[in-house]
Amino acid sequence: MSPALYSAAKSLLFQLNPETAHNLTLFGLRMAERMRVLPLMMGDVPSDPVEILGMKFPNRIGLAAGMDKEADTVNAFGQVGFGFVEVGTLTPRPQPGNDKPRLFRLIPQRAIINRMGFNNHGIAAGVENIQEATRFGGVLGVNIGKNKLTPNEDAAQDYLACLRAAWPVADYIAINFSSPNTPGLRDLQAAEPAARLLASLKSEQANMAAETGRQVPIFMKVAPDVTDEQITELSRVFLDEGLDGLIATNTTLSRTGAENSPRREEAGGLSGAPLTARSTEVIGAFAAELKGRIPIIGVGGIMSGADAVAKIKAGASLVQLYTGFIYRGPNLIRECVEAMKAECPVNS
Question: pLDDT tens digits, the chain, 348 residues: what are they?
């Protein structure tokens, strides 16, 4: 897609309410994919293959969770150029999420604030949608969370239910225990509850692998607002309990870089350019603690190819886009792939 064409489309979409624009965009992508015109619009899918944890990625650029919440646009996002797509967050039971409005653009800051609250139709509906994504050739991650009304002491049961449901269709499963938009969820990031949760998940992972004969890695997604002490403690938990992969980072509660926006007081997680440096810093800190034993997916404020390269150089093996994709469009995928191939080749 030419930059001029995406700029024109964005200018129209940005006249709409952000959530309306989001839903309309996904509908348009699905229609273009079903009409078989999307590949003609996007051109060749960028190639930069890599294998991690037994999964073969066509390229190292993924779509972060939160864009395809219902897992109903997977085929289209593959044709847009993503080497992997992470759907969700999906919860055991359907839930409407938080009250609207709950999604806000901070255009001068190239940022977004959201307080969506895990709005989704439930894990069963998500799995059905994934089963229909027969034309997707990349790696599929399923991001799971607990329902809002489930108390933290019962959170493991929600995650285990989703893990079992997603197992047959997921290439990897991501545990979202770091969203700022479900009350109390981030309390699970403390060392003790994180260790209990991960131990339960790893036990069920072993059971499911024995029953089904297939391996599905477990990733956990952490917040950018962790302290150095928390990074050290969580790294020890992840290593001790055998975590397969880490995703760093989720959205932030900080408003650094967005101080001048009239939207800065909106509750929710901030993503986009203001998060770039902090996310990369957290990736580097975890990489130093984990010493290559656990692969990292880097996400947070990737607005250019240079930002993607910085995440890789900080210690990430793969990266994901969300807000940058909204502001830059599909051309950002190609830019990131080309920059990473030039500066961080897979076999270097």
Answer: 677 788 899 999 999 999 999 999 999 999 999 999 998 888 887 799 999 999 999 999 999 999 999 999 999 999 999 999 999 999 999 999 999 999 999 999 999 999 999 999 999 999 999 999 999 999 999 999 999 999 999 999 999 999 999 999 999 999 999 888 888 888 888 899 999 999 999 999 999 999 999 999 999 999 999 999 999 999 999 999 999 999 999 999 999 999 999 999 999 999 999 999 999 999 999 999 999 999 999 999 999 999 999 999 999 999 999 999 999 999 999 999 999 999 999 875
**Residue 196: what are its φ and ψ, rounded to 5°?**
-65, -45
203 is catalytic: no
- Catalytic residue, from 2, 47, 178, 179: name it: 179
Instruction: State the virtual CA torsion across 256, 271, 290, 205 in degrees, nearest 10.
Output: 150
